[in-house]
Amino acid sequence: AQSVTQLGSHVSVSEGALVLLRCNYSSSVPPYLFWYVQYPNQGLQLLLKYTSAATLVKGINGFEAEFKKSETSFHLTKPSAHMSDAAEYFCAVRTNNAGNMLTFGGGTRLMVKP
Amino acid sequence: DAGVTQSPTHLIKTRGQQVTLRCSPKSGHDTVSWYQQALGQGPQFIFQYYEEEERQRGNFPDRFSGHQYPNYSSELNVNALLLGDSALYLCASSPIQGNTGELFFGEGSRLTVL
User: Fold this and answer.
1) Shortest Cα–Cα distance, A23 to chain B (Å)
2) Which residues of B touch A (CB under 8 A)?
C-alpha cells in the first residue's frame, strides 16, 4: 500500500520568510504526487502536481516542489511567505494508474506571523 | 463554468439515522469520487463512480453506499449513522480521459452526528 508522511503538523513562519513543508511518500511504482491547499471551511485546491515530467514543479501562488526519487520526497517551498498563505496543506500520492484514489498525508497547518 | 457543487453544506443528524449527500461534478467531468475528512486529518477515499458504477472502494463499511446518475451527478448515502461518521464529506470530479490524477474538489458537506 502506498502512504504519505507529512513531517510537522504545524509550521509557523514570519511573513517574508522561507516556507518549507515536508512530504515523504512510499510507492512501489512511479508515483503521481500532488500538493493541495485547504482554506478554512473550504474544499481542497490543487497547488501543483508531479506527473513524471520535470522534477521541479511550479505551482500557483509562488509555490514549487521538487521530486527527489532517491529520498522519496516531494517537499513544498515558497521563497517568501505571505499572510494569505496561512492554511492547511496536504500532500497526496496517486495510488494506481487506473483510478482516482489519492492517498493523503495528515496535513500541515501553516501559520504566518506578521 | 461551475465547479464541483455539493449539497447540503451543513447538516446535523442523530445516531442511527440515514443521510444522503449530493454532488454535481465540474462541467466536462464524468468521474466522481467521495472522500471523508475527519477533523484534523487528511481526506480518506471512500469510493469512485464512473459510468454509473462503483469502480474503486476504500476501507469503508457497506453502510456507505453511492449512486451516479446519467448526468454524472452523484449521491453518497450513509446508513445507521455513528458518532464517528461526523466529518467533512468531499466530492471530487475528474475526466476519465487523459486523467493524471488531478481532482477538482467541492467545498464539502459537513455532517455532525449527535
Assistant:
1) 13
2) 4, 31, 33, 40-45, 48, 55-56, 58, 90, 92, 94, 99-108
A20-75 pLDDT tens trace: 999 999 877 778 899 999 998 888 999 999 887 788 999 999 999 999 989 999 99
**Tens-place pLDDT, residues A80-93:** 999 999 999 999 99
Compare CB distances from B100 to A4, A49, A99 and report the shortest one's residue: A49
Residue B26: closest CA among B5, B1, B4, B52:
B4
DSSP letter (8 states) at residue B40 = T
User: CA–CA separation, B103 vs B37, rounded Å?
Assistant: 15
Asked if B31's CB is within 8 angstroms of A101's CB, the reply is no
Among A46, A100, A102, A103, the residue to mutate for chain B (most B Cβ within 10 A): A100
Query: Residue A111: which of A6, A32, A9 has the closest Cα?
Result: A9
Half-sphere exposure of A20 (CA within 13 A, CB side): 5
